[in-house]
Prior knowledge:
This protein is of the alpha+beta class. The chain has two domains: about 5-195, Ribosomal Protein S5, domain 2, CATH 3.30.230.10; about 200-365, GHMP kinase, C-terminal domain (Alpha-Beta Plaits). It has helices at about 5-15, 85-100, 120-135, 145-160, 165-175, 215-230, 245-250, 255-280, 285-300, 305-315, 345-360; strands at about 20-30, 40-60, 60-65, 75, 105-110, 180-185, 190-195, 200, 320-325, 335, 365, 375. Strands 1, 2, 3, 4, 5, 6, 7 and 12 form an eight-stranded mixed beta sheet that branches. The protein has a four-stranded antiparallel beta sheet with strand order 9-10-8-11. Strand 3 and strand 4 (about 75) form a beta hairpin. The protein is globular and about 60 Å long. The relative contact order is 0.17.
Amino acid sequence: MSSVxxxxxxxxxxxxxxxxxxxxxxxxxxxxxxxxxxxxxxVLPLAIERRAAVVAAPGDDWHxxxxxxxxxxxxxxxxxxxxxxxxxxxxxxxxxxxxxxxPRGARAAVASAVPVGAGLASSAALTVAAAKALSLMAGxxxxxxxxxxxxxxxxxxxxxxxxxxxxxxxxxxAQAGSAILLETATGSVARVPCSGRVWIVETGVxxxxxxxxxxxxxxxxEEGLAWCRRWRPGLAHLAxxxxxxxxxxxxxxxxxxxxxxxxxxxxxxxxxxxxxxxxAGDRARAGRLLQAGHDSLRVDFESSVPEADFIVTSAVEQGxxxxxxxxxxxxxxxxxxxxxxxxxxILAEVARAFSDRWGRVPEMWSTRASAGAKREAIPAAAG
Length: 383
């Protein structure tokens, strides 16, 4: 069942009738360019085929329901946040109201096929879908930039995740068959052909980015930037540093700031090189860059987990071009690039080895580069 049909079914069960509007938005996998977005560097994400959906109808106040538990929750968008999934929609409603694009109230149902806590931007898929659905219901068609900003601020300012704008940008701007090279310092977007499938292997280790680890790393990057400005006074972002700046700077930085800065600078170069490799159809070179990126996440940014390291090593040993923990880290999923003719064998061997080591079979699936947020036809039948 598609996420839209699933959400419509729950809407009918809990509210009766049919919604007035339905919107879906994709999760994403970031091929490479991790922790560069909030440091002014490039990222290379693609939208996955799994999507979140929000269906809604007008209401006098706010009633929200999710397929997670089927419980209708009445929320006060002016009151304290509840500490659960409804906070994302409350943040969206507050941001829409600030630009005059919010309905007076809504009955909304949410369904998502994007795994939560897997580093696949499930929260951005939700906030983008909600922002588009609720603004349409209010009679406003937001521009792509407005939609990105509303969704970003809902998560960053209200929920408290110190994310960059990568996730929201790809959820809005993605096109089927392409990844996006986003230069976060300038906002420039270049579409990068990405044919074939990429594989996602879930570590089974869930993360909550608002629990503090991402915020801690971001603070370390900010501190590293402050140190670097002692010797580069005009430096706006860490990613402005060049690779040949590193040797001199890293020696001057205290631990762990030296490693954090090194990751950002080298990862920025890897992301641009990987985009060029994909555009040239050289998946083998792109895979090697993914592998180097994972090593940097493991050693310099210290954001990997043993399960991810095991999957990456197993995939490469079995003949994958490369693999890397995707998303902010501390759990989540690994993205694998493999030769098309060998994918089934490689992934089967990874699953067998992981089961032998960890006592469970990892969830794994493949995706092609998908499209961004869109208004959906409301299913004729909810079942």
